[in-house]
């Protein structure tokens, strides 16, 4: 049951990633869930906002804090379609988020090349859910850029 | 001459840090300079905005990109009163900033515990300018919190 629920939320993150694709952004989407409720949805907006800090995760963190009225995201889970970069991992550490679920890893750009200590010691991570969908979307995006 | 100019800009960053102190925020300030001109000033606003992403550096990066109309901060220098954290270092990497000057290091919270590879390979760093002023300000802030 937990897995089915995780998949449901990851599918919402994938919807956000597809929105990014439609807007000619690197297709990455994120949602943040608290007590079963999606409290933030965001997609990568780096090009639209002309701002390197406008990753899906960063926008979702800001929106979730605004919703909760708390800078800490205790009790929250982030679902994101790609392994967060070090910037986003650093933000997630500050937010002390409970759990991070990402669809596909990013050996070149992801935070894990610096190790799990980038995150808060209490943050749990898992990945691999909807991996193929996320990879396919990213592959199509970068292929379209090379045409 | 270069050092005098660096000091001038760092003193502006310290003014921002003092503004943060007055507003009961951890006193950290930053300015970004392009072609000798200060194009962004910011201070830590995490408590005011209730948002862990609202570090001085992050706000300055967003403001500088807005000013330049570019997500890349080529030709820019960031002056910041404390060694950036991994989140901010990650953002500075994405922005491909030319140079980072920080007043005092942060062995526990700074990005350097993960190494200089957190930054873009072309980014230069230096530190130690106005170190004592920055340290004194931070010390006073944390002492006032323990009273």
Can you walk me through this structure?
Two copies of one chain form a homodimer. Chain A has about 150 residues and is an alpha/beta fold. Chain A has five helices and five strands, in the order H-E-E-H-H-E-H-E-E-H. In chain A, about 45% of the residues lie in helices and about 20% in strands. In chain A, helix 1 runs parallel beside helix 5 (about 130-145). The longest helix of chain A has 21 residues, at about 1-20. The radius of gyration of chain A is 14 Å and the shape is globular. Chain A starts with a helix and ends with a helix. The model of chain A has no long low-confidence stretch (mean pLDDT about 95). The interface between A and B is medium-sized, with 27 and 27 residues.
- Spatial strand order of the main sheet of chain A: 2-1-3-4-5
Q: Which word captures the global form of chain A? A: globular
Distance between the termini of chain A: 42 Å
| Contiguous runs where pLDDT drops below 50 for at least 5 residues of chain A | none
> What is the residue-averaged pLDDT of chain A?
96
Radius of gyration of chain A: 14 Å
Structural class of chain A: alpha/beta
Quickly count the helices of chain A. 5
SSE layout:
The structure is a homodimer of 147-residue chains.
Chain A: H1 2-22, E1 29-34, E2 37-43, H2 46-49, H3 56-68, E3 76-82, H4 86-95, E4 99-104, E5 124-127, H5 131-146
């Amino acid at each position: 049951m937990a897995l089915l629920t995780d998949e449901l939320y990851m599918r919402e993150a994938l919807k956000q990633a597809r929105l990014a694709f439609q807007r000619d952004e690197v297709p990455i989407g994120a949602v943040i869930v608290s007590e079963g409720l999606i409290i933030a949805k965001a997609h990568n907006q780096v090009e639209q906002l002309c701002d390197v800090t406008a990753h899906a995760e960063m926008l979702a963190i800001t929106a979730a804090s605004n919703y909760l009225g708390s800078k800490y995201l205790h009790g929250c889970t982030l679902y994101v379609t790609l392994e967060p970069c070090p910037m986003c991992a650093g933000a997630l550490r500050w937010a002390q988020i409970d759990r991070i679920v990402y669809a596909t890893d990013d050996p070149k750009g992801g935070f894990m090349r610096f190790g799990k200590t980038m995150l808060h010691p209490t943050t749990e991570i898992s990945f691999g859910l909807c991996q193929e969908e996320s990879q396919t979307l990213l592959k199509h995006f970068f292929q379209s850029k090379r045409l």
